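Technical note accompanying the year-one report. For the benefit of new consortium partners, we illustrate the data format agreed upon in the data management plan: each record pairs a sequence with a structure-token string. No post-processing was applied to the example shown here.
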Amino acid sequence: MIVKPISTRSYAHNTVAYLFGPGRSNEHTDPHLVAAWIDRAPDPGRHPDQHTVGQLAARLDIPIKALRPDQRPKVKYLHIPIRTAPGDRQLTDAEWASVARRVLTAGGLLVDGDTKGPRWIAVRHADDHIHLLVGLVRQDGRAPEQPKYWIKEMRREVDRIEQDLGLQLVRRGDGTAAKRPGHKEHFKATRQNRPAASVRLRTAVREALTASASVDELVAHLAVQGVLANVARKPSGDIRGITFAHQPEPGREPVWFSGSRLAPDLSLPKILTRLAAAEHFVGGYQPGDPWRHAARHLDHYPRTLDHATDQEAADHIHALGALLDATTHTAPAAVRNELRAATVVFERATRSRKEADYQAGRATRELAYQLTHTHGTGDAVTWLLCVLIDAVFAAARWHQAHRHEQQEHAARQTLIHLRAAYQQTAAQPLAHLTRQAPDPRVNARWQTWIHAHAPGLAERITTDPHWPALATALHHADASGSGSVALGDDDRKDLGQADNPAALLLWRIHDQQAQQHHRRAHSALTRSRLTTRPSTPASSARTPGITPDRNRHR
């Protein structure tokens, strides 16, 4: 249940007319009072033949207009929408009336037995919410005595209401969320059936930042996405501001947004700090396959969070968001939609009260930059998605431990999209490995091995759909003599924390075999180059009268 008070400077008529009207898109159905300051308040919704909007508004305005004009408050009303969460049951009018009274009482606007309190109404025009309109002048002419932190008191009462009525417990924010679109922007997006302009801009800027190591690169990447970036400079040449806008329709002006309006971590100082930290990326280390290298880097991400300070962990999680953003650029087309959905959701999990300093996650951001310049193919994509799931799972646990409810929820929602993307990329290699499954006796041997080396996880691993492919990978690793079938204490801890230990163990072994194959191929190539000699000169070219002494250098 969400409660968000809105200050209103005008008199009651406009707000009352909106509450009892059809709505901006005819979404208001059966508007009517569920409660008011008196039992028989005028209800133009249920009794339009007896009462009008004007009559109800005039009754609400009486205490305010009774004061001299110079005594009337600038903020005359509080307009308080209260909404249940999607999936909650539909409350009755009587339940909504109780909710309204409890919220107003918590905010000091209603006192039991006080007949001189402010005038107020609770209007219901949809199944899932009501609107409160309460005057800020009591009927005796005084201002209501509200507690200092009256909004917090209202929200604490809403928490208790959710428990009492069996509703979902809505996760409280910490002030680090991106600003929601305004009403005009929201309704325009609804008409166009697409995300609001600021939401699309935020996603575009984040993805472009991941692929950029300078302001010029950022502007170029945004231009490719059809986004304008206006860089304002001081006379000295230093940047004093960057604003962003979508390409406008012909004949229209662009609507500009500052970075800080899009999200707290997209303010100008933070953009410049992040780009400064990325300056060395262009000439930095470029691995042969950054997708596989990124997977190996993230393979121990849960351990990294466990041993990091809060400041470092916050930066690691922010960098993880950058790496997730990078996958949407060059991942196989079949999974890009799921990955883009994952990045949009995980964006909320990247910000908390502990701000990123762009230092601890430097290596992760560099790999993200490399990913944006290399298309992902084959098993490397599946391997990276597997460890990304565990990395996001670890981020959710970290947020849970620090009671970051919105961030934890965002991370867990991200897992839904990542698992869907993983299933798409893993289907073919898993089927291929399963078709090579060894003799049942060999399979039984590896079941025994798992029970001996990971007893706490054995049942979970051997009953997982990945098990046939994992048994094949274990058998091949053992047969190749790669030594990949040993589990140390750290390995067991990683598997215990993994979202899917069977999948993690499978792709670790698969990657180790790929590394071994690469090393063998490299060694063979090196040996072939060393043993190659220039051809011996023809005998006709030898100096006449000289016979080579074959034993001279033995």
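Partners are asked to follow this layout when depositing records. Residues 79 and 133 are 5 Å apart (CA to CA).
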